[in-house]
Inverse folding.
């Protein structure tokens, strides 16, 4: 079996999750970590049992043992780092959003296609076995024609004015916060599950907390403020709450909310697709259950059990029924689809497995977010998504 060497740029909050997900595959060697300086990279590499450490990603890209590079940097570095990986002829796996704007994302898509390298985006929820079961059920016509899609992705980690993150700074996180960070996940997921494309949006965006206390010292990602922390008062210009009406290419309508100021909701992603024959709903915080709604017979809950899933979905479930699987398992599933495709020696032009989101998918998500922002700036009017 051909072994593949993996390197990663950035080993903060999400970086170790990339490494853990890939390490589980068994045929990938975790070769190197690159970070802001050599000391930090060495510290992270030692913590994660990675042999090589680089003080900048440019040096790591010269390493012949690294075949695939993961980009786990803050949003503003996604474009330059991804572009450099592609230019070095390495396969690339990028955190979402793919770039700060749809224009940047389009450029990355085209650069990767020209270079002939595999390119993936970490839309992790695709890897859940019941998400794939919902996709297959809809594709096989079990709910009829999708007419209405609704849902949300809401959290509470930015509820207070002492909550802060670089994601709130436009020069680091982009023009959008909630939509770019978590709304992009929802938009990718519903398009993936339904097989439909979002064509028009009407966005209403809000900054619920207009001023925040930015800590002067270092604070871990998603951590609450400490009592003795010093801070600066910062005006916030990006949204922490958004509601969006949507139209799909088959005539279906939809609505979703993305917000990070909703108390009690830790990572509450939900979608429901209402069809002409039945409805189907999945919720991330109860991710081992899939609700199927009927009119003329009792509605049902399909539990995650390989024996109950369609044959083409079963390999996404690793444990027998009654054994819960979660976010890390789904994340490893998307890495499995990416790396097994690379290992098989296929062309990047060939169709990819279901959980493998490409730069094309990342571009589409960026385009939807850009259209929502454009709609809101114009006074919340219907706006076409420019793909």
């Amino acid at each position: 079996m051909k072994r593949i060497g993996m390197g990663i740029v950035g080993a903060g909050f999400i970086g170790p999750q990339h490494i853990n997900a890939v390490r589980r595959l068994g045929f990938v060697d975790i070769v190197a970590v690159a970070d802001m300086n050599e000391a930090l990279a060495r510290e992270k590499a030692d913590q994660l049992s990675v042999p090589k450490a680089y003080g900048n990603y440019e040096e790591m890209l010269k390493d012949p043992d690294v075949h695939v590079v993961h980009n786990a940097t803050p949003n503003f570095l996604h474009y330059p780092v991804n572009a450099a990986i592609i230019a070095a002829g390495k396969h690339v796996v990028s955190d979402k959003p793919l770039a700060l704007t749809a224009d940047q994302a389009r450029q990355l898509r085209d650069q990767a296609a020209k270079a002939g390298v595999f390119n993936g985006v970490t839309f992790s929820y695709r890897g859940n076995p019941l998400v794939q079961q919902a996709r297959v059920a809809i594709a096989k016509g079990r709910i009829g024609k999708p007419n209405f899609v609704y849902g949300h992705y809401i959290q509470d980690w930015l509820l207070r004015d002492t909550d802060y993150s670089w994601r709130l700074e436009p020069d680091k996180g982009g023009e959008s916060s909630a939509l770019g960070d978590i709304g992009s996940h929802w938009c990718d997921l519903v398009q993936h599950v339904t097989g439909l494309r979002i064509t028009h949006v009407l966005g209403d965006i809000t900054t619920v907390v207009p001023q925040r206390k930015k800590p002067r010292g270092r604070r871990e990602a998603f951590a609450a403020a400490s009592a003795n922390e010093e801070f600066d008062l910062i005006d916030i210009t990006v949204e922490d709450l958004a509601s969006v009406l949507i139209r799909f290419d088959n005539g279906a309508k939809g609505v979703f909310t993305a917000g990070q100021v909703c108390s009690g909701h830790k990572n509450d992603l939900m979608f429901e697709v209402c069809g002409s024959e039945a409805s189907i709903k999945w919720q991330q915080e109860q991710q081992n259950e899939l609700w199927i709604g009927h009119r003329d017979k009792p509605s049902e809950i399909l539990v995650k059990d390989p024996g109950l899933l369609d044959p083409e979905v079963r390999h996404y479930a690793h444990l027998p029924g009654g054994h819960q699987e979660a976010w890390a398992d789904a994340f490893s599933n998307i890495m499995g689809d990416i790396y097994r495709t690379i290992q098989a020696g296929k062309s990047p032009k060939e169709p990819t497995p279901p959980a493998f989101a490409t730069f094309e998918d990342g571009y589409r998500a960026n385009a939807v977010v850009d259209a929502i922002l454009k709609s809101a700036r114009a006074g919340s009017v219907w706006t076409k998504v420019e793909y």
About this structure: The first strand starts at residue 4 and ends at 9.
